[in-house]
Amino acid sequence: MRYIRAFKYLFVIMAIGAVLAFFESQRADEYGHLSERTHARSQPVLKGGPSQELAQVLLELYPEGAQSNLLMGTALAEKGKLAEARVHLEKALAADRHNQQLLFLYARLLLDMGEDTEKVQAVVDELRRLFPRTRETVEEYFSRASKGKLVFDEGVY
Amino acid sequence: MSQSSPLIRSGYIVDRRQDYVWFLGLPIAALAFALVSGQYLPGAALAAIALWVTIPHHFVTWLRIYGSPGEFARFKERFIWGPVLLIGFTYLLLHYAPLSLVLIVTLWDHQHSLMQQYGFSRVYDFKAKTGAPSTAKFDLYFSWIFFVNMLVVSPLFSTLWVRMLHEWHLPISAAGVQLVHQISWVITIVYGLVWLGHIAWTLRQGYALNPLKYAFLGVSYFLWYFTSFTTEYLLVYAVAHRIMHGVQYIVMVYYYNRHKVERGAGDSTIINYLAKPGNIKAFLLMCAAYALVFHALSEGHVRDFGFGIVGFNTNFDLFSYSLLSSFALIHYYYDAFIWKVRKKDVQEGL
């Protein structure tokens, strides 16, 4: 009894956690609206239709917001609507230029749309400067994606 | 409270100078620093600033509890079994239900943050012997309502909770969100008026007020509201909030230990040593050393010291990552019961 009294607050938290965990797994199985985790440290995210629905709600609330435009830009890019996606991604960039996912997606989109190498390079360099931890992966990816047109050296910084 | 008491009476958490620096000036400085660094520093640097404050502020909790036999004896079972249960709980959630873990850590973190500022406001009233008996309750409701309103209506946090609802497959429409915003504002404004009315009633009843408490609450809520309404960059909020929350906590624990030692209530060699005014550098160095060790553990760098045996599997990666959340949860858990201003042994350190 003494232990139950001592830990009652903690047990309540753990019971809430257990209920939430049950609810989470049940909903993920039932609706399949979340992507698989790619790494132990990553989180599942919304995919497909549900992601676009969320983007639509956020756009109605915050038409100039970074998150809302990023989500809509991502959803449109996944559907191959690159020109429409670009409009949203540029709006998102106007609100926040510190988002890694946003800069990455925008650089990739410019590359896919056949934009000038200098234009793509400027965005990738911004990505490299702001997120040094993933610099090598980014360089490797864009070097491959641009078939060697994008060249990275140490002098940028 | 006698009718002859002056109605405005100042009392400080530490002293006049320290309070102006750490409790009233720091939130404004932290806000300015976060806004400027959000413009010019990379995200990795902002995250590092937040971590360099957050991790040491956990450490001072461990120091207060595990460094003092008296403190440890107060809730021995919880201090032994609490970490074991919470590390296991976090690991399991991270493995099987990551969204649930995010939700629990986020909500508990917010509750913990608002309760810290509420706790400091109680210390202001305790030190100045101000406020009516009902003030604690009115201030508690104020803290909850104003903080939750900030979470509900600000663009920064609205985006997050709407996203979370969709991730839980509980979608909400834009009209639904706007309705929630309106209800939240109405509750907040009405309660704000009730709270002001209670302050006026307190004065009419002859109870004194501590202006420092209201200035402290004012700058704290200004920091939270300003960052969450003017930026969409979560790290700007994180840096401003973490500096205010973490540094104020470290200052509080440092002076708490020092007061206990000065009043002869200290029972620990290490705390007696660190609480001496000349040893503040040693105190800060220990905080920094702990942050480095924690970073090596939580980021998995410890595998580099594992002779190729320890740390080379997915479970280790998951475990090391779960330390970030579990140590935060242990800190929230302990803080929920070690800082009761009404308790005599806590008052000894205030």
Number of helices of chain A: 8
Biggest beta sheet summary of chain B: none
Taking Cα atoms only, what radius of gyration of chain A do you get, to the nearest Å? 21 Å
Number of helices of chain B: 14
Total separate domains of chain B: 1
What is the CA-CA span between the terminal residues of chain A? 63 Å
The greatest interface here is:
A-B, 48 and 50 residues
Task: Name the helicity range of chain B.
Answer: over 70%
Tell me the span between the first and last alpha carbons of chain B: 22 Å
CA-based shape of chain A: elongated
Secondary-structure element order of chain B, N to C: HHHHHHHHHHHHHH
Classify the helix fraction of chain A into a percent range: 55-70%
Q: Which oligomeric form is depicted?
A: heterodimer
Provide the succession of SSEs of chain A. Answer: HHHHHHHH
Categorize the overall geometry of chain B. Answer: globular
Supply the helix-strand structural class of chain A. mainly alpha
Strand portion of chain A, in percent? under 5%
Low-confidence stretches of chain A: none
In words, what does this structure look like?
The complex is a heterodimer of chains A (157) and B (350). With 157 residues, chain A is mainly α. Chain A is built from 8 helices and no strands. Among the domains of chain A are: 2-31; 98-157, no CATH class. In chain A, helix 4 packs antiparallel against helix 5 (82-95) and helix 6 (100-112) runs antiparallel to helix 7. The longest helix of chain A has 24 residues, at 8-31. In chain A, 30% of the residues are buried. Chain B has 350 residues and is mostly helical. In chain B, helix 4 (76-96) crosses helix 13 and helix 5 (98-128) runs parallel beside helix 13 (314-338). The interface between A and B is large, with 48 and 50 residues.
Q: Which short descriptors sum up this protein?
A:
heterodimer, A: 157 residues, mainly alpha, 8 helices, 69% helix, B: 350 residues, 14 helices, 0% strand, globular
